[in-house]
Structures are given as C-alpha cells and as structure tokens.
C-alpha cells in the first residue's frame, strides 16, 4: 500500500471515529435532556390527582417544559420501601421521582433511610407553616378529621353540636353516629371528648391510650358504622342514616357548601394531619424533583389547589391570594388552625402497630 493510500485511509478512519464520538455525545445529551423532561409523581389518584394536575402539574409543565406523569397508590408505605430496597440491590432507579405521603410515613421513611434529604436552599420554606417543614419532606396540604352533623336532625333553629363533648352527649343530641375505623384520629377525639385540653392530648409525646378507650366505651353503643372509605360518612349523613360523624373535613366542607347537602360541620377540635412531598432514594431526576417541590410550595400554587379540594395550604401567604370567603373556610386559616390538634406523626410511627391491634380487638368485643 502506498503512503498516499495509507494517509487517505487514516483520514477516513479519523472522520468515522469523530462522527461516532459526536453521535454518541449528542445521543447522551439528548437522552439526558429527555430524562429531565419527564418527572413521575406518585400520589393518590382520582379527584385528588385531578386537582393536583390543575394546580401543580400543568402549570409546572408550562413554566419549565418538564412533563409530569402521575402515578397512583393507596398510601401503602410497604410499596415505597420495597421499591427503594429493590433499586438499591439492583442498581436501578425507583419508578417515581416525587411521592406524596402522610406524616407518619415520612417519619418511617427517614428512619428506614428510603428518602432523600432536601438540600438547603432547594425549597423556599420561609412562608410555610413550621409543622410543614422537615429535613426529608415539604408539606403540601393539611387535612382534618372533623365534626359534622345532619341539619335535618339538628337545624340552625335549635341547638347544634359544636364539640366532641356534644358528639358524646347522646341525651342532648340523640341518634346514631359514625366514626373512622382507625385508632389514629379516633383516640385523639376520644380524649378531647373526655375533657383533655388540645395542648395536652400528647403529654410528653404520648397518648393516654387507656383513658381514650374508656372514653370510647361510652360512645361505642351509639356508633352504627365504623367507616373506612372517606365518602361513606358523608353519604350516611346526607341520607340521614346517622346524625353525626367524625369525617374528613374537606368532604364535609364540600357536602355543605358545594353540594348543598343537609350537612354542616365545624373545624373546631379537628385532628390535623399533613401530606408531604418527598423524594425517594434512587430517583431518576432528583434535581427536577426538588424544582417541582419548590414550585408546588409557592403561595400562588397553593392558593389554587383549595378551589378544587378544600384542604388547607401549607404556605401562609396563599391566604392573601385566594378569595377571602375561601380562605376563612379552610382548616389552616390562622384563627381556625389554632383550634385543632396536629396528629403526632412520631407517636404513630412508634406505636401504630400495637395500638391498631388493640383497637381491632376492642371493636370485636
């Protein structure tokens, strides 16, 4: 082979190698860009996910160009833990970038090391309610189990219940009741009904479980339904099958104001819990996940969400943006927030299994 042919061949090889390197580099860049352009958010599906899409997902997509794919689950902590452990053992990523979870699941997730800590400065928390800020999660909304009643049984022209003591007072307010089939919320309510002050429900971080069960014994004969589906107590109240309910406050609120059912409610004495955004370990797009959480924590976004589902925002500034009538009718409105009890996630993360077993035995007696 002549020297000129060797030189020509070398040039061709260099060109093809160069093109290959350029194509590989461009492909990697495109794949990286496409990866950032999609964020998978795990939430609860149904009307809740539709409200999140309108208030958070679609506006985020428009502002950032990052597409959000929403996935749904029933809040099963075991599903989250199994996915992270699988990713750790296989070297893969988990199926989701952001998860919506309850406070007790957040505590368990931190202890089991399945959640990514949120780096300082990634999320603006200056205007958030303090209880909504955690090292591994940022509160997105507050929900309550609250007192509701049938307005046919107790019209505004006569006495109406205003506290859990009234719920227990079957002499003054006769008729069947319904309560949540869950010791969480229910034991706290029983203590309030027995005269425990709101700031003493968790003494030294613990519930007086024995006192709570003694209180429940008094009302148990008058509980016709122990509900497990959130809409069930609303239907029972609306149909007049029960006269009072311990039910999700947002559903009671919608029944009264939106659906015009014969239902009324009060936030006073409600038991609050928090839903958090968190990022699981081994997520594919943690940086975009933090960007989304910061976006969803903004006052303008949190002011819109209650228009669809009346859950209290975690951002205090949201009340300054939304209509006053809506603001004053939410459970985290400042004057309303202080009349309720925030569920202790730490207590239930430590004691849920034991107390649930006792509660289920008690129900069967």
TrEMBL record:
Single Gene Ontology BP annotation: thiamine transport
An example molecular function term from Gene Ontology annotations: thiamine pyrophosphate binding
Localization in the cell: Periplasm
Domain of life: Bacteria
An annotated GO cellular component: outer membrane-bounded periplasmic space
Pfam families xref list: SBP_bac_8
TM region positions: 6-24
Keyword Transmembrane: yes
Principal subcellular localisation of the protein: periplasm
Keywords on record: Membrane, Periplasm, Signal, Transmembrane, Transmembrane helix, Transport
Family stated for the protein in its record: Belongs to the bacterial solute-binding protein 1 family.
Protein name: Putative spermidine/putrescine transport system substrate-binding protein
């Amino acid at each position: 082979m002549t020297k000129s042919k060797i030189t020509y061949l070398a040039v061709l090889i260099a060109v093809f190698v160069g093109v290959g390197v350029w194509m590989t580099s461009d492909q990697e860049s495109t794949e990286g860009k496409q990866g950032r352009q999609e964020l998978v958010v795990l939430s609860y599906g149904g009307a809740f996910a539709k409200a999140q899409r309108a208030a958070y997902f679609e506006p985020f997509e428009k502002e950032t160009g990052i597409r959000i794919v929403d996935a749904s689950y029933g809040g099963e902590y075991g599903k989250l833990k199994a996915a992270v452990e699988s990713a750790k053992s296989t070297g893969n990523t988990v199926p989701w970038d952001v998860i919506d979870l309850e406070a007790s699941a957040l505590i368990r997730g931190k202890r089991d090391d399945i959640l990514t800590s949120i780096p300082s400065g990634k999320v603006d928390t200056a205007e958030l309610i303090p209880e909504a800020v955690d090292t591994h999660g940022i509160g997105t909304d507050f929900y309550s189990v609250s007192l509701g009643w049938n307005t046919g049984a107790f019209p505004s022209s006569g006495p109406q219940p205003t506290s859990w003591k009234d719920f227990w007072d079957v002499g003054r307010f006769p008729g069947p009741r319904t309560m949540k089939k869950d010791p969480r919320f229910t034991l706290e309510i029983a203590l309030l009904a027995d005269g425990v002050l709101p700031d003493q429900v968790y003494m030294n971080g613990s519930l007086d479980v024995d006192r709570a069960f003694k209180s429940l014994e008094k009302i148990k004969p008058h509980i016709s339904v122990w509900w497990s589906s959130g809409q069930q107590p609303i239907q029972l109240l609306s149909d007049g099958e029960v006269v009072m309910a311990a039910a999700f406050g947002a559903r009671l609120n919608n029944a009264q104001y939106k659906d015009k059912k014969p239902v009324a409610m009060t936030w006073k004495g409600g038991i609050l819990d928090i839903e958090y955004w968190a990022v699981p370990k081994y997520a594919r797009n943690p940086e975009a996940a933090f960007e989304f959480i910061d976006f969803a924590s903004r006052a303008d976004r949190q002011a819109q969400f209650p228009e669809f589902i009346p859950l209290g925002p975690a951002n205090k500034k949201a009340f300054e943006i939304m209509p006053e009538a809506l603001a004053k009718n939410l459970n985290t409105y400042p004057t309303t927030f202080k009349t309720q009890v925030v569920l202790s996630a730490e207590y239930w993360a430590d004691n849920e299994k034991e107390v649930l077993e006792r509660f289920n035995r008690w129900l069967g007696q």
